[in-house]
Specification:
The protein has 145 residues and is mainly alpha-helical. The protein is built from six helices and no strands. It is elongated. The chain binds zinc ion. This is DUF7575 domain-containing protein.
Amino acid sequence: MTDTRRRALIAALVGVLGASVGVAGAGHVYLREWRRGFAWFTFVLGVGLVLVSVSVDPTTLTMASLTDLPSEVTAPIFVLLFLSAFDAYYLAARGHPRSDGLQCPVCRGELDPEVTFCPWCATEFETPPRGPETFDAESVRSETE
Ligand SMILES: [Zn+2]
């Protein structure tokens, strides 16, 4: 088993464990994908609050009704929770951060050579980062100019 594959499986496992206690983004925390994990956590929490508010009458809301939510509330939340676990698996399985592609010097995130900012940590670059194959030509040219 490769490191990437093992990392993906652990991320999925942590994500599912988190999901089983109602916490989205646990797998992302394992992957140190803080922003994405936090986004998942707040997204699922927000969806849950909206679903609860539309399906449970606030005037009759008790702790008992919160622990015995209708399936219209719990089913979508469970789907989202497990989607977040799958997302963590997908992130790890595709090998982020990759060592062979372009990497952000700040967060080691995978970069698109066409953009001048990092989509993972929003760091802006003065020039688009270069791959290893173009880096030498570029630096040589700028030295001779
Ligand atoms: Zn970055």
